[in-house]
Write a structure and sequence with these properties.
The chain is of the alpha/beta class. The chain has one domain: Formyl transferase, N-terminal domain (Rossmann fold), CATH 3.40.50.170. Helices cover 35% and strands 24% of the residues. It has six helices and nine strands. A seven-stranded mixed β-sheet has the order 3-2-1-5-7-8-9. Strands 4-6 form a two-stranded parallel ribbon. β2, α2 and β3 form a beta-alpha-beta unit. α1 packs across α6. The longest helix has 26 residues. The N and C termini lie close together (11 Å). Bound molecules: glycinamide ribonucleotide (GAR). The site of glycinamide ribonucleotide (GAR) has 16 residues, from α1, β7 and α6. Glycinamide ribonucleotide (GAR) binds next to α1, β7 and α6.
Length: 195
């Protein structure tokens, strides 16, 4: 199964996928490319480290969504990789119907809360400030409505009385790394890949 990762940040989830693949724990999944909408994103350093194509793709003209010329650049570059799965791992930009139609049913996203609670930006801070006792992370299919696509799997994290937002974030990130690896490995075993 050919996997393309899109991300905007430090790339700890993409790193977890690369390490799992290296350790033989990613089923039949192979990471073929990493693209970022930020030229300075840490996620791009994974390319040389793991021998994977990794590059900045200009998302212009919009600031918070992927549409128009930027969307077409992503459709072309991702499409050239012939992916079976596109993983949004901290891709902080709203993906629109044009991209989703180009990779119908193949785009999944990781979100740091138990959806449908706390969608959108800062899912960890929203849950912490609300005072819920459990939060966690979700992997879901991407649909045009933000953070609302069909849920594939979730992991719960308890918020302890002595947690700060930072200690909570650390446990959620650890849970995300495990969950995303498990989901991608599982999906890879369900996909028929030409031998
Ligand atoms: C992750 O916590 C992911 O859930 C979140 O961005 C972080 C990326 O971290 N995504 C969203 O909030 C999407 N709405 P990483 O760059 O270290 O993988």
């Amino acid at each position: 199964m050919r996997v393309v990762i899109l991300g905007s940040g430090r790339g700890s989830n993409a790193e977890a996928l690369c390490l799992a693949r290296q350790a033989g724990r990613l089923g039949r999944a192979e990471i073929v490319a990493i693209f970022s909408d930020r030229a300075d994103a840490g996620i791009l350093a994974l390319g040389p480290r793991f021998g994977i194509e990794a590059r900045y793709l200009d998302p212009a003209p919009f600031k918070t969504k992927l549409e128009g010329a930027g969307e077409q650049r992503y459709i072309d570059a991702v499409g050239a990789c012939a992916p079976d799965l596109v993983v949004l791992a901290g891709f902080m930009r709203v993906v629109k119907p044009g991209f989703l139609a180009a990779f119908a049913g193949k785009v999944i996203n990781l979100h740091p809360s138990l959806l449908p609670s706390f969608p959108g930006l800062d899912g960890i801070g929203q849950a912490f400030r609300h005072g819920v006792k459990f939060t966690g992370c979700t992997v879901h299919h991407v649909s045009p409505e933000v953070d609302a696509g069909r849920i594939i799997d979730q992991a719960a994290v308890r918020i302890e009385d002595n947690d700060t937002q930072e200690t909570l974030a650390a446990r959620i990130h650890a849970a995300e790394h495990r969950l995303l690896v498990e989901v991608v490995a599982r999906l890879s075993l369900a996909v028929r890949v030409a031998d």
